[in-house]
Amino acid sequence: MSLDPDSWPRDQALARLHDMLRIRRLEERCAQLYGEQKIRGFLHLAIGEEAVAAGVLPHLQPQDKVVATYREHGHALLRGVTMNTIMAEMYGKQEGCSRGRGGSMHLFDRATNFFGGNAIVGGGLPLAAGLALADRQLGREGCVSACFFGEGAVAEGAFHESLNLASLWRLPVLFVCENNLYAMGSALARTQGDIDLVAKAKSLGVPGAQINGMSLPAVHEAARLAVAQVRAQQTPFFIELHTYRFRAHSMFDPELYRDKDEVERWKQHDPIAHFAGLLKAAALASDTEVQALDRRALQEVEAAVQFAEAGSWEPVTDLLRDVVAAA
Ligand SMILES: Cc1ncc(C[n+]2csc(CCOP(=O)(O)OP(=O)(O)O)c2C)c(N)n1
Ligand SMILES: [Mg+2]
User: Fold this and answer.
1) 14-66 pLDDT, tens per residue?
2) Which member of 63, 88, 101, 129 has the lowest number of beta carbons within 10 Å of its beta carbon?
3) Which residues line ligand 1 (CB under 6 A)?
4) Positive or negative, the Cα torsion across 100, 101, 105, 107?
């Protein structure tokens, strides 16, 4: 595969590579900080899956809505939530995007229409359908709600209900299934009689496409077409992105369900190395430029760590803030 220079202006190509490097470096640092117990609780990394967020999110407009899962650090970052407030949230500091009350799985930012982070498998799908319905009811025209979820969500009733209603009510939702082959330790074929997810979506009235999720250009082009269709027709679309996580499901996972060889084989398709290789082959970037982008990402991460370290804990007097109870 080679990059078509007409569809890849140099600044955009470099920006997408930088996007993926920012996610990768942020998450690698989070893993380290977890080992130091600076970050606690759950932590799910999307290392290896960066082309998903980097390929889809640039096509969205500020008025669009984004819903994701607990593996959402990169989605929040590319949606425009600052790395500082993401890192502070990881630490549980009140300067975090969810005031330190959410942590890794519950990044949330109303200002950028980033509607979370969700710990419930499949929990984001009805939210995305509801957001799209609200746009329709309130006369906000031309919006798209993008909903990211793992292939494990296909086993949930919420998947079927949400796609059915989105189809029936013609809701402008882009359903993005990040098929990384496993739901914790369960391979898709161990939980689904039919693993053709595009066919499942189609059976609910939602057209779709299956794409190589390790290739940034492939994801970018598929998402460009899909977002344009959802926006213009105000109807749902489904994209299944075949991807792979290089790390464990979360920080507590002995990985007994897959061979080391399999992981190594997928690492040969690292989306960052792949895209950097394409840029260099097309003479859109030199080694030095790629390294400079990487250094910028590393510096941004270190600044975010400093920000989080300097942050503060919520005072006890705020304990009941946001707690709603019926008398
Ligand atoms: C409703 C519900 N059931 C079970 C769980 C426990 N659980 C957490 S992650 C996970 C696997 C989900 O896999 P997938 O949707 O493929 O996403 P991935 O972790 O691969 O990104 C499960 C079963 C949960 N969080 N919510
Ligand atoms: Mg999965």
Assistant:
1) 999 999 999 999 999 999 999 999 999 999 999 999 999 999 999 999 999 99
2) 63
3) 69, 71, 119-121, 150-153, 178, 180, 182-184, 249
4) negative
Mutate to test the pocket of ligand 1, among 121, 178, 247 (most ligand atoms within 8 A of CB): 121
Task: Judge whether 150 and 180 are in contact, CB under 8 Å.
Answer: yes
pLDDT for the residue numbered 327:
67
Give dist(CA 125, CA 148) in Å, integer.
8
pLDDT over 80 (residue 1): no
223 is written with which tokens? 């998402």
Section 195-221 average pLDDT:
98
Q: Residue 184 CA: which ligand 1 atom is closest?
A: 11
Nearest atom (ligand 1) to Cα of 188 = 16
pTM of the shown model: 0.97
Q: What percent of the chain lies above the pLDDT cut of 90?
A: 94
- Average model confidence (pLDDT) for the chain? 97
Q: At what angle do helices 216-233 and 10-35 cross, to 10 degrees?
A: 110
Distance CA 38, CA 31 (A): 10
Give the tens place of pLDDT for each residue, 113-124.
999 999 999 999
